[in-house]
Amino acid sequence: MPHDSVERRDTAESRDAVRLAALYDAHAAPVWRYVVHLTGDRAGADDVVQETLLRAWRTPRILEQDPSTTRSWMFTVARHLVIDEVRSARRRREIGVAEVPERSVPDATDALFEAILVEEALAALTVEHRSVVIHAYYRGLSVAEMADALDIPEGTVKSRLHYGLRALRLALQERGVTR
To answer: Residue limits of the RNA polymerase sigma-70 region domain (predicted)?
Structure first.
């Protein structure tokens, strides 16, 4: 019994393959020309024809009709597929190009110049002020942690940080940084 079901399935699959091949031979080329006439897109026409043939194959009543009726049904389906593609959001957002553009890489020139500018301004500070500013802003230490690391009182850290930032602001303004 299992052998009979496999044989029936093979027969049904071969019938489907024959029907699909006959459908393709009879209608693919005219439908393709029609779609190319509508869109001007040869590659896109292949996709539309494939979908049209698939829909015809899935609709057995179409295959049982007169071939001229089947073809006009396929032209209508193809036209609707083209219209749907034109109306789709994907089509409105896509822009075809001959070559894929290179990926843009952010320019690091401005960041480099800013780093050099800050480095020069920091070099203009006294050693004490520069040390507190670097510990606070580049190492992220709290006032208490800076006091321990530099072995100075917290009040002195606060004072040096205040005056160090004022001197840094002045040094940056002298180098053309405004504000």
So the answer is: 23-92, 121-169
What is this structure's pTM? 0.45
Among 59, 93, 127, the domain boundary falls at: 93
Q: Give the C-alpha separation, 16 to 119, whole Å.
A: 77
Q: Is the dihedral of CA 119, 121, 126, 131 positive or negative?
A: negative
Structurally, the chain folds into a number of domains equal to: 2
The verdict on residue 2 lying in a domain is no
Q: What pLDDT was estimated at residue 156?
A: 95
The number of helices, as runs of H, and strands, as runs of E, in the chain is: 9, 0
Rounded (10°) angle between helices 42-58 and 67-87 = 130
Task: Supply the range of the domain harboring residue 147.
Answer: 109-174
Q: What is the mean pLDDT, run by run of 10 residues, along the chain of 179 residues?
A: 59 74 86 90 88 85 78 90 79 70 79 89 94 93 94 95 94 81
Tokens of 104: 């843009």
Residue 131 included in any domain: yes
Dump the DSSP string for 73-137. HHHHHHHHHHHHHHHSHHHHH----SSPPPPP----HHHHHHHHHHHHHHHTS-HHHHHHHHHHH
Q: Does residue 21 fall inside a structural domain?
A: yes
* Cα end-to-end span (Å), the chain: 91
- Give CA separation, 36 vs 48, 49, 81, 114, 154, in Å: 10, 10, 13, 56, 80
